[in-house]
Amino acid sequence: VSISPALSDGMVVRGSKSDGFQVLLDGLPIYSRSHMFGLFDAFNEDALQQVGFYYGIAPASYQAPPGGTVSFLTRTGSREAVSGSLGASSTSVQGTIEGPMGGGRGSWLISARKSYLDDVDWFGNSSLIAQGLDVGRETSLVGTDRGPFEVLNGSADYHDIHANLYLEGRSGSQVSVTGYTGGDQTSQNAQRRVVGGNGSVGQNTSANSTWGASAVGLRYQTRLGRSAFLKTTVGVTSYDGTFLN
Predict the structure, then answer these.
(1) How far apart are CA 210 and CA 156, in angstroms?
(2) Closest Cα to residue 188, out of 122, 114, 241, 134?
(3) d(CA 90, CA 119)
(4) Is the Cα dihedral 229, 59, 68, 46 positive or negative?
(5) Higher-confidence residue: 17 or 146?
(6) Biggest alpha carbon–alpha carbon distance for the chain
């Protein structure tokens, strides 16, 4: 297993193409797998229960392609009492709140994360933005009539939200409703020197990008006899993006 030259392109298993590698969240494919062009994971670890990585033959319950699968499972909330947590890293702040429902036979959970890369420039946040936006890179334009870019400013922001509702029936059946949405927004302004008939002048350039993914799923599991279960999952997942230069 190796990382492709562009980290945001995904992972490569046994020489397969990067688009042959899929990421599942509660059985639903997620097409925006990272934040900031591959610098950060798309999922908040506080909302995850377990992760499975299948690079060979996957269990029959997964529609796994030959390029490999990473399957994330959203955890259920506390069935004892309402509780919450709040934390921060050098790039984002995140919080989780959870509690029981249905007389203790179920639970709910909401977990969210929001970056503050633009608000607090510490521990190299500005360098992370420049790396993610791929600005300030040396080019072969030096010495021609179009000089290198001078980055004036850049901004980046990402967020993600997880939600889970879980309920057990008296017969042992289980119903789970999960939701996820996450996205990024970046922009940068730059200037380059252009040699024209009237000498060297500055030419302004800008780039703006917005993209993200969402998924909502319903999973129902019931017992069939003593040693068999029937599990049904339905849902919808989407991806959208806008890129303007």
Answers:
(1) 10
(2) 134
(3) 11
(4) positive
(5) 17
(6) 86
**Residue 144 scores a pLDDT above 70:** no
End-to-end distance of the chain based on CA atoms, in angstroms? 34
Tokens of 166: 């879980």
Q: Which two tokens stand for residue 173?
A: 């059946």
What are the tokens at 217? 């799923």
Closest to 116 (Cα-Cα) out of 155, 84, 153, 152: 155
Quick check: 160 pLDDT over 80? yes
Bridge-based pairing of strands 69-74 and 146-168 is: unpaired
Pairwise CA distance, residues 100 & 83, whole Å:
10
CA distance 5 to 36: 16
Task: Give residue 212's identity as a one-letter amino acid code.
Answer: G
pLDDT confidence of residue 10: 62
Report the amino acid identity of residue 237: T
- What is the DSSP secondary-structure string of 116-174? -TTT---TTHHHHHHHHHT-S---TTTTSSEEEEEEEEEEEEEEEEEEEEEEE-TTS-E
Contact 83, 111 (CB under 8 A): no
Tell me the C-alpha distance between 84 and 110, whole Å: 9
Residue 203 to residue 195: CA distance in whole angstroms: 10
pLDDT above 60 (res 164): yes
Q: Positive or negative CA dihedral for 124, 182, 57, 227?
A: positive
Bridge partners for 14 per DSSP:
none
Q: How far is CA 144 from CA 47, 136, 147, in A?
A: 52, 17, 6
